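Usage

Read records sequentially. Each one opens with the input sequence:
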Amino acid sequence: MTTNTTYDVTIIGGGPAGLFAAFYSGLRGLKTKVIEFQPYLGGKVHVYPEKMVWDVGSVPPLTGAQLIEQMIEQGLTFDPTVILNTKVTSITQDKHNIFHLHTNEDITHYSKTVIVAIGGGILQPQRLELKHISHFEQTNLHYLMKPLTYFKNKDILISGGGHSAIDWAAELEPLVNKIYLTYRGDTFRGHETVTEKVLSSEKVTSFFETNITKFISSDSGNTIEQVELTETESNKKHLIAVDDVIVHHGYIRDNSLLQDSPLQINLHDDYFIMGSSLSESSVEGLYAAGDILHHDGKLHLIAGAYQDAANAINMAKRYLDPEASKHAMVSSHNDKFKQKNKAIIEQQMK
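and closes with the structure output:
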């Protein structure tokens, strides 16, 4: 199956780099599409929705969740087409230099230029290898954190012994009724001071060298009510009553889009796009932004992702129209914002 419309720019990835690229592409008058693997926009920031973010230029400290909200609002300013729940599996190019973006939905998208903004690759949490548990992900089995207040006064089981698991235990400890920690190793790998604080709490009970082996559900079968833990050496079972289960077993990074590409995309360390400081790749018309881009002087901050995105769009604009200006006009003098500014001022005066 194919789509009928050829876009000026298609952005693969809806995180900080992809969303700012979508904004800047609209600012430059380009017909824009964003394709995102996850069912939501915001990218890796969803991993730390309650953490405070301090290093976005001129933005006071705010939570990851607040940053996501603001990035999405800005990214959708010029109404780009957004496709969620879709993985771009390969990119080819025809004799007219139109890029064909093939997807897991068996749909092909067409674009004159492409910007790859997939962070460090598609980030997927390591899921439990238990059968018939996917329906619990819709209720009380979590691989990504919810707002902390969701867990208030609950009994929580956290599986994992790395930094993320221990950090979330520390964040949740003041709010919840009880925390159970289960880990397949014999000692936690979080920061020493944080780990000591967590383990010293009367609310926390730890199980080492154990694995989750079974979920016992409610009468409806949709909600976990008890978790069976099994000790790896003795096979001894523990049955824990819980309200929610949080799993932090790390992440799988999928970069097959680039590693298996039929296009000759030069990679750094066989993973990242080897590009220029102007976000160019080795394939004309294909650019990169954010953590997936590597070059000398690369800045791995959200601020750096924004610069990558603007550079990529400017290069795409000049690729499509060599007579175009090198940069977009700044927003304070740009006619595209006259009506929007007027609407904001009117709203503020009400």
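Summary fields computed downstream for this record:
- The helical segments are 16-27, 64-75, 163-172, 192-199, 256-259, 302-320, 338-349.
- The CA atoms of residues 259 and 271 lie 7 Å apart.
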